[in-house]
Design brief:
The chain has helices spanning about 45-65, 70-100, 100-120, 120-125, 160-165, 165-170, 185-200, 215-220, 235-245, 270-280, 300-310, 330-345, 385, 400-410, 425-435, 470-475, and strands spanning about 1-5, 10, 15, 20, 25-30, 40-45, 130-135, 140-145, 150-155, 175-180, 205-210, 225-230, 250-255, 260-265, 290-295, 350-355, 375, 395-400, 415, 415-420, 440, 460, 460-465, 480-485. By secondary structure, it is of the alpha/beta class. The chain folds into two domains: about 50-255 and about 460-480, Aldehyde Dehydrogenase, Chain A, domain 1, CATH 3.40.605; about 260-440, Aldehyde Dehydrogenase, Chain A, domain 2 (3-Layer(aba) Sandwich). The strands form six sheets. The chain has a seven-stranded mixed beta sheet, sandwiched between helices. A six-stranded mixed beta sheet has the order 11-10-9-12-13-23, with helices on both faces. Strands 1-2-6-5 form a four-stranded mixed beta sheet, covered by helices on one side. Helix 10 packs across helix 11. The longest helix has 30 residues, at about 70-100. The radius of gyration is 25 Å and the shape is globular. The model has no long low-confidence stretch (mean pLDDT about 95). The protein binds nicotinamide-adenine-dinucleotide (NAD). Nicotinamide-adenine-dinucleotide binds near residues 213, 232 and 257.
């Protein structure tokens, strides 16, 4: 899968349980964000390469869908045990290519494992319904069947967890998959592919296609691919949804976010300040569930800002493999883009309370560093508010009332996650009912649902109507079929051209 030439690895596609170099000749560099060093070259598929990988998934489908559920689930259990035993290896790969700190990388793998746990229960999740004697001597039952080869396209910020939202369920339900990871941190998926081989998954069931728009476009348009599960930025999610559905596929396309936390005057400010730091700066803000806007209601803003500053000043910024609290950003270009948002906020008149642009990190001189940045007195027409920044930048917006805060959130085009901090159960209950966001936390800053619930936002944070994992995930990767049967009974013979009714 990966061949090392003078420390730089070649990261190939993967099909039929082995590496596939492809024929495009195109590659993209993969870097360690904490040092800036190029550590790998990932293959970028041509249309031909993509077709070869998709054909492997197509060829493997008939046998896999007919493999007994018991055997499919046994393979899933073996995969679960192997992953659980070796998750630190995967976490280290994530830190080396993404930059997030070791504990956070392990957390990502653990949340992905939850979906594998769920998929181990597929026999229960796939059970259909049966009605005996629905009409005289007629029985009706329903089954759910796999779709075929399915495409999974993931973003850079969770190189393992996001594809794991989908493939355990897809595979356990009898589909074959093609995963197209982010070209920025592609190695985690190849490591997972090798683990599947060890778990005994037949060739062609789990395939990896590396690449950029060319690879994605082939997945979106190739008739062999029956569904697309996409996670990434909103403009691409919108494009993927429009193109995939236009080619007759079912599509779930999860997009970007701008997550607000409301802090009411009666909130426990220490709890809220901890939460703002953890959810604002964890993974350097490169989480779709990061809190990027703290909405301070009433006269608590000065105290809240002071508490956030006090906590943030204790954070160690540096190489994620060396015990830091927060690592670098994914690329130099992204680091510079995030910094330019801070510049724009400053020019627009917001107050830069903590300035990450001048951070001194415990990491390589050429690493992509930007420290935690806290910006107060942010207004909703500033670009630091209107745009998804996807970096360690927390804005504080001051408002007078709960209603003003709620109106702001509901007017925002994104609707991924949100949180309210309060000790007032009535206010919390009102918020969960009124807010137009898919995932809501009450005194919980990053309300990522457990695997047996479904993950997904509203508005520009999700295109399609099916969220990831949970029962919605099982429905997405299966088609319903209802069978009406009558076993031969001579008394029911005879012609009747009318529409079938009951007797
Ligand atoms: P991205 O949209 O740039 O890339 C996502 C995937 O799309 C990658 O595999 C990439 O190769 C591919 N891609 C990029 N440009 C493309 C194009 N023009 N045509 C076709 N495919 C293309 O996103 P990213 O920068 O990797 O990830 C960060 C974004 O993902 C953020 O906006 C974040 O909010 C979002 N995200 C959302 C969720 C969620 O659950 N809603 C979860 C994680 C990340």
């Amino acid at each position: 899968m990966t061949q090392s030439v003078r420390g730089v690895q070649t990261i190939s596609h993967w099909l039929d349980n082995k590496p596939f170099a492809g024929t495009s000749g195109n590659t993209a560099p993969v870097t360690n964000p904490a040092t800036g060093a190029v550590t790998g070259q990932v293959a970028l598929a041509s249309v031909e390469d993509a077709r070869t990988v998709i054909a492997a998934a197509e060829a493997a489908f008939p046998a896999w869908r007919d493999t007994s559920l018991a055997k499919r689930v046994n393979t899933m259990f073996r995969f679960r045990e192997l992953l659980n035993a070796r998750k630190e290896e995967l976490a280290a790969i994530i830190t080396a290519e993404h930059g997030k700190v070791a504990a956070d990388a392990l957390g990502e793998v653990t949340r992905g494992l939850e979906v594998v746990d769920l998929a181990c229960g597929m026999p229960h999740l796939l059970k259909g319904a049966f009605t005996e004697n629905a009409s005289s001597k007629i029985d009706v039952h329903s089954v759910r069947q796999p779709l075929g080869p399915v495409g999974i396209i993931s973003p850079f910020n969770f190189p393992a967890m996001v594809s794991m939202w989908f493939f355990p369920i897809a595979i356990a339900a009898g589909n074959t998959v093609v995963v197209k990871p982010s070209e920025k941190d592609p190695s985690a998926t190849n490591w997972i592919a090798e683990l599947w081989v060890e778990a005994g998954l037949p060739a062609g069931v789990f395939n990896v296609l590396h690449g950029d728009k060319t690879a994605v476009d082939e997945l979106l348009t190739n008739p062999a691919i029956k569904s697309i599960s996409f996670v990434g930025s909103t403009p691409i999610a919108q494009y993927v949804y429009a193109t995939g559905t236009a080619h007759g596929k079912r599509v779930q396309a999860l997009g970007g976010a701008k997550n607000h936390a409301i802090i009411l005057p009666d909130a426990d400010l220490d709890l809220a300040a901890d939460a703002m730091v953890n959810a604002g700066f964890g993974a350097a803000g490169e989480r779709c569930m990061a809190i990027s806007v703290a909405v301070a209601v009433g006269d608590i803003a000065d105290d809240l800002v002071a508490k956030i500053v006090e906590r943030t000043n204790t954070l160690k910024i540096g190489d994620g493999s060396r015990g830091a609290d927060m690592g670098p950003l994914i690329t130099q270009a992204h680091r510079d883009k995030v910094a330019s948002y801070v510049d724009a906020g400053e020019e627009a008149g917001a107050t830069i309370v903590l300035d990450g642009r001048t951070v001194e990190a415990d990491g390589g001189a050429d690493g992509f560093w930007l420290g935690p940045t806290l910006i107060d007195h942010v207004e909703t027409d500033m670009s630091i508010y209107t745009d998804e920044i996807f970096g360690p930048v927390l804005s504080v917006v001051r408002v007078d009332s709960y209603d003003e805060a709620l109106e702001m959130i509901n007017a925002n085009p994104f609707g991924n996650g949100t949180a309210i901090f309060t000790n007032d159960g009535g206010a919390a209950r009102r918020f969960q009912n009124e807010v137009e966001v898919g995932m809501v936390g009450i005194n919980v800053p990053i309300p990522v649902p457990m695997a047996y619930f479904s993950f997904g936002g509203w508005k520009n944070s999700l295109f399609g109507d099916t969220h990831a994992h949970g029962t919605e995930g099982v429905h997405f990767f299966t088609r319903g079929k209802v069978i009406t049967s009558r076993w031969l009974d001579p008394s029911h013979g005879g012609l009747n051209l009318g529409f079938p009714t009951h007797d």
